[in-house]
Design brief:
Blueprint lengths: L9 H14 L1 H10 L12 H12 L12 E2 L1 H6 L5 E5 L3 H6 L6 E2 L5 H8 L7 E5 L4 H12 L5 E4 L8 H4 L3 H4 L31 H15 L5 E2 L1 H6 L4 E5 L3 H6 L6 E2 L9 H4 L7 E5 L4 H12 L4 E4 L8 H6 L1 H4 L18
Parallel strand pairs: 1-5, 2-3, 2-4, 4-5, 6-10, 7-8, 7-9, 9-10
Helix pairs in contact: 3-10, 7-14
């Protein structure tokens, strides 16, 4: 079980103050609500959702801070290998034994709460870096850990694929595709009707307790239910409520059929925005690379949405288009330029 721990040092308290001033904290939520048109019906959210929102806001409104998403480049990890960092490898034991970063420890996703509570003293490290195959499982795990109060956890961008080409062959390099880019559309779609947030039914009466139960349950459930592949989405786009979690110009350039754009930094924790996400459909969140959407998916699943992050993001279905428009729209296509030749060890 993860126990939520306040960060008491001066640096972190100062950072929280700064983030709240940037994001607006609870005021940002109130402002977002007050901006809803008068014709839009008001729907009260359930008590557990209110308590959870209040607790997360009091912890620093992580989802609307400059630290969201908490990603770190492989080059930065390499430079700090001899520093005060802990690297946690979330891949399978076989993958870890085949090759891993020197000093990394292998911990399965579902064992992370026990590892943080019993095996290490998390706040003794400057950084705790989550590593996986592509960076997306690490992003999902890091988001949950950050929401639990561990403010020194990061996900390594691109995963082991960027550490050494040996690991990229079966991950990023094998999954970029342009298979569905001819099916993209440019029509803008409206958000769904306002409704209540999912009912969590934890039976707890405080936000801290609700957060504890939800975090523990998501780690116990594993990560597979939080992932979805492009093949599944394009086979029947109408089955899903698909969220394009990116800039407006990128959305307008072409998106998954039926996708609705939600603004990064202006959706999570904003009641009037979250109320437009259906509770009775599978929700697919996608972005450039699957990293940002992995963080957003963790937040939505924390609140009970059946949310999934699209693996490899746009790279999985419109890779050639991303390459062609890279300069104009700042796409992030994965290329061999992202791959380093850093050393690794094997068991």
């Amino acid at each position: 079980m993860i126990h939520f721990k306040p960060i008491l040092n001066f640096f972190t308290l100062s950072l929280v103050v700064l983030l709240l001033s940037c994001s607006g904290g609870q005021k940002k939520v109130e402002q977002a609500d007050s901006g809803v048109e008068a014709s839009t019906p008001k729907v009260e959210i359930n008590s557990e959702a209110k308590l959870l929102l209040k607790t997360l806001s009091e912890m620093g409104d992580y989802a609307n801070s400059r630290n969201f998403p908490s990603l770190i480049k492989p080059s930065a990890v390499f430079e700090e290998l001899d520093g005060n960092i802990q690297i946690i490898d979330l891949r399978s034991e076989d993958a870890y034994d085949d090759g891993h970063i020197k000093g990394a420890v292998q911990v399965s996703f579902s064992d992370l709460p026990a590892y943080f509570s019993n095996d290490i003293k998390p706040f003794e490290y400057d950084k705790i870096v989550m590593v996986c195959y592509s960076g997306q499982i690490a992003s999902y795990a890091t988001s949950l850990l950050r929401l639990a109060g561990y403010g020194n956890v990061y996900a390594m961008r691109w995963g082991m694929s960027a550490w050494n080409k040996y690991f990229a062959e079966d991950s990023w390099l094998d999954n970029v595709s342009s298979e569905f880019q001819e099916q993209l559309e440019t029509a803008e779609h409206d958000k769904a009707a306002v409704t209540d947030l999912p009912k969590l039914n934890t039976g707890k009466t405080s936000g801290d307790e609700i957060l504890q139960v939800r975090i523990d349950s998501l780690f116990a459930a594993g990560y597979s239910e939080a992932l979805i592949h492009a093949d599944d989405v394009f086979e029947d786009p109408a089955h899903y409520y698909t969220i394009n979690y990116d800039r407006k110009d990128k959305y307008e350039s072409g998106h998954i059929p039926g996708a609705v754009r939600y603004k990064p930094g202006g959706t999570l924790g904003i009641v009037s925005e979250m109320q437009t996400i259906p509770t009775d459909k599978e929700v697919v969140v996608y972005c450039n690379t699957g990293h940002n959407s992995g963080f957003a998916t963790a937040y939505l699943r924390l609140f009970g949405y059946d949310a999934k992050t699209l693996t490899f993001g746009n790279n999985a279905f419109m890779y050639d288009k991303m390459k062609e428009e890279e300069s104009a729209l700042s796409w992030l296509p994965f290329t061999e330029a992202e791959i380093h030749d850093y050393p690794y060890v094997s068991n």
